[in-house]
Amino acid sequence: MPWLKLLHIIALVIWCGSLLYLPALTIQSSRARPDAGFAQNAPLMPRFFFISTATPAALVAIVTGTVLFLLHHQTGGWLVFKLFAVMGMVAAHGGLGWLITRLENGRTLGATVGSVLFALLAVSAIVTVLTLVLAKPMDWS
């Protein structure tokens, strides 16, 4: 099923890109003045991007990855480490969602530091996943 693997890769690229873009978007939103826009009561852009792009891509990536795992009966030590790295990506995703909720409630204190920390977590998890996937042919047992 090459189409399933292609869908998995596309969803991962979108999700990883979202995890790298959302911290910058939350930092920008935390610095925006509440009286500076023409649509003050409109939902924040981070919420829209989080709900419409990042979360669906994450769900598709996780579901297709699970189906691929079940179809190909993959096992090995690399897979356990990869799943822990994916948990790091999920934690960064959830943390960014929490920061967005805080911003919507007007609590901007710590948004920049939190965004940077979640960005670092996301980058380290993404690099770990890529490293483990590319090292898979080494057949870790």
Order of helices and strands, N to C? HHHH
- By DSSP (H or I, 4+ residues per run), the number of helices equals 4
Number of domains: 1
What are the low-pLDDT stretches, counting only 5+ consecutive residues below 50? none
How does this structure look, described?
The chain crosses the membrane at residues 6-27, 48-71, 77-100, 112-135. Catalyzes the oxidation of protoporphyrinogen IX to protoporphyrin IX. This protein is mostly helical and 141 residues long. It has one domain (2-31, 40-138). It contains four helices and no strands. It is elongated and about 55 Å long. 27% of the residues are buried.
Kindly summarize this structure in a few lines.
The chain has helices at residues 2-31, 45-72, 77-104, 111-135. With 141 residues, it is mostly helical. It is found in: Cell membrane.
How are the secondary structure elements laid out?
Layout lengths: L1 H30 L13 H28 L4 H28 L6 H25 L6
Sum up the structure in keywords.
single chain; 141 residues; mainly alpha; 79% helix; elongated
